[in-house]
Each structure stands twice: as C-alpha cells, then as structure tokens.
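Lab channel / #folding
Pinned by the channel admin:
"Please post every new chain as: sequence first, then the structure tokens as a reply. Keep commentary short and put observations after the output so the thread stays searchable."

First post following the new format, from NK:
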Amino acid sequence: MNKETTWLFITRAQPWLHIGQEDGIRQWVDQWITKIIIGVGSADKEGTSENPFTFLERKEMLERSAKELLQDIEVEVLAVPDFGDNVKWRNFIFENASDFQYVLTGNENVKNAFKGTDKTIIPLEIRQFVKSSTIRSDLAISNFSAIEKVLPPSVVDYLHQIDAPKRLRDIFNKERKTPSLVVDIVLIDEHGKLILIERGHFPEWTALPGGFNDYGETWAQSAIREAKEELGVDIEIEKELWIRDTPNRDPRGHNVSRAFKAKIIGWTLQAGDDAKRFFEIDPKDIDTLHFAFPDHKEMILAALKW
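Reply from TO:
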C-alpha cells in the first residue's frame, strides 16, 4: 500500500483537537497518514454558545494542537461553511482542498456526503470520550483543571490570551443559557441494600437512578417518572436530600440536582432508559465504586445519616 496518503477529517473545532479526536487519528497514524486536511465545519458561524470562536481563532488553536499532538504529520486547515446541502458541501471541499484519498470520520452526515465517491471512508473510533459542549461549559466557569486534562497546553494558553471564559459567559448570559435541572434518587430496599445503576451513556460508571426534569414537571414528579423509566419501579418520596448546584458537578455541563430518598412500593426491577444495568450493594461498600457524578456519594451518605 502507498505510504504517501492524505486524509480528510472534518470537525467544527469549537475550538480544538481534543484528546479523544487526537487518539482517534493516532490509531491510523503509524500505518498510513502522512498528511491530514482538517476541515473546519460551520466556519461561517461564530459568536454563539455552539460556535463561540471565529474561524481564525479555531485555525490558530488547531495548528497549535497539531504541532503538539500530530508532530509527524503535515496539516492543512480548510474553512468549510455550511450549505444545508450535502452535494454542495462536498463539492466545495473537492474544489478547495488538496487531493485526498481517505475520509476519517464517525459522523453519519459526513459518511453520507462522501458515499458513492472514490474516497475511502475510514471509521473514527473514539476511545476517550470528550464532548466539546462540556469543554465550552467548563470554559464558562473557568474550570481549567478539567480543561487542562483534555487540551494541549499551548491551546489552554491561547484560551487564556483571548479571555475565552468571559466570552462564553457573555454569550451564555445573552442567550439566557441556564443550568438544567436534574433529580437523583437514593433507594434502599427492605434488606438495607442500596440500588444503583451502571450508566449506558456518557458519563459512564456508577450512578444513582435519576435524570433530567421534563418541562411542566415538579422535581418530585421527575423522580417518580425516572425511577419508573430506569428501573421499572414505583416509588414514594420519603425525604428531600437538598440541592447540589456546584457548576462543575456534572461532566455533561452545568446541571443542578435535587436529591431525594425514596422507597420502592412496586417491585418489578428491570434496567431501562439510560441504565445499562442495575445492581444492589451494601452501603458500607460504596467506597469501592467509581461514581459518574462524585456528589452522588454525598447524597448516599446524607440519606444514610437521615
């Protein structure tokens, strides 16, 4: 196989190549890639919570990322505006990018756009799951301890230089982007066992049953519905365990939780919705668990104390 190959990778890059994307690219680097064209999607969009950075800012951060993360690969950055039409979008890339042989992607829209062309589509496997929306939320609250774990140091420095946290806060406030409301439920059965779930979606690991409030629901109504959807059980609220509103308590974004202690009044336990499975554990063994949300342990301890 020809070792001189050029690959296309499309990302909105709001605003960087993070470790999940870098890892996905690295899976192929040692085999084939000698040049990669990074197409910056929605390059004509800026100044919103979804697209807060300009193309030139994104280009600067991509080049910094590439210099640190992809040192042995030639990188070309291409501005790709939105067209609302796959054919026009694809043709723009053909007309403006250097010749390439492969398309590296995990995005179904990108796959469909290049389907039927002479380009080989290579699936991008994300083994380190990072959400750009989460990083933008972390920026808005200046949570750089989290950001530094997923971005190259030079990009973190640049975000400081352009005062990215203030920009995100101003945009969020202008758009009235407020925290979401969630409920968490501490359930202890008649044998004194704690009922927990193993999450099937990001963030994975162990969690209390619960979820987001639906419009028109009280927190208590949400808790009753979530218990039914995730575990198939009917519950009765016994005690409120206070509100947790630390902005970085949830890796998905700024979500405010109201926790409840509840008892099961209907006993058809079955995992559903976000739960991959449920399990029961002696409360004294909770230190052996990896919680998706660290304050879930606090909620359990509060319920046990009560």
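NK: The longest strand covers residues 255-266.
TO: also worth noting, The chain has ten helices and twelve strands.
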